[in-house]
Write a structure and sequence with these properties.
This protein has one domain (9-320): P-loop containing nucleotide triphosphate hydrolases (Rossmann fold, 3-Layer(aba) Sandwich). 41% of the residues lie in helices and 9% in strands. The protein has helices spanning 65-77, 86-89, 100-109, 140-151, 156-163, 178-187, 199-211, 223-228, 230-241, 247-256, 259-264, 266-269, 291-295, 298-311, 314-320; strands at 9-11, 16-17, 23-24, 32-34, 55-59, 115-118, 132-137, 218-222. The chain has a 4-stranded parallel beta sheet, with helices on both faces. It has a two-stranded antiparallel ribbon with strand order 1-4. It starts with 8 loop residues before the first strand and ends with a helix.
Length: 323
Amino acid sequence: MAPYSGAGVRCPVTSRLDGSGRYDRRVSQVPLVRYRSVDEDSARWLDFPFRQGDIVISTRSKSGTTWMQMICALLVLQTTELPEPLGRLSPWLDWLGTPRQNVVARLEAQDHRRFIKTHTPLDGIPLDRRATYIVVVRHPLDMAVSLYHQGDNIDRTRLRQLTGQPEPREPPPPRPALHEWLLSWIDWDGSRHEQLDSLPGVLWHASDAWTRRRQPNIVLVHYDSLSGDLEGEMRRLAAALGITVPDSLWLVMVRAAGFEEMRVNAVLTAPDPADILKDRSQFFRRGSSGAGREVLTPDELAHYEARVGHMAPPDVVAWLHHS
């Protein structure tokens, strides 16, 4: 199952003083939900020093995070030659594997428009009027299958070292086969706070973003829309971000954002600034939709659809299923 095990608790956000001693009202003052796991803590967003034009990319795991980071890199920098690996250009603020002060210092040193990664839903991070928040969703079954395969590509010993977790006293039990694992993922009945990459967590992340879709600095994107019309979606994002791209650059930028091109350049594009992936090229395993539905029988798929229908509003389900 997914690695999240921390409980969600209410974490109040207070006004902070700006340089003149006045309260800064650009950051929303509503209480935030704190999401914690063995390797993430959304409280690292508290008092983050936003800048005008910041871009925050909020997704569930294996739902198009790296793809959107690459698109933002291309739109902002307007070159296909990344000056450094994507995971360093667009750091993951919530991740406990790197000290927060190091991440903030890296972002403070950037002189280009910043684009920051998070797996925290929007109710867990400050919503600043100066920033644009891009939420990418994917069909939950496709996300789950990709997450399952990603689990085999993570160096767990290295991850424990970076996050300060003890070594297990006994070897972990063998992982179940994909079909068995996916059925248990569909039927898992805990709280989203326990496992954000669970079905309840996926549905909440999307539902919360959907309710905010009319806010001027919230942009919703579906993985299948990127797959079906990458250039069109990149142009839509450029318009939403107020970025002008010369006509002469569009073709080369769209090509650079393609799945195969990113896999070829996995040394730079895979999100692995701390060397926890066993094989960076395997991070880009398939990149297409339908894997989850291929695993299930018609009855099992109907069971999944009925379960989702009881857990999220119909318009959110239709969006997630891209129907």
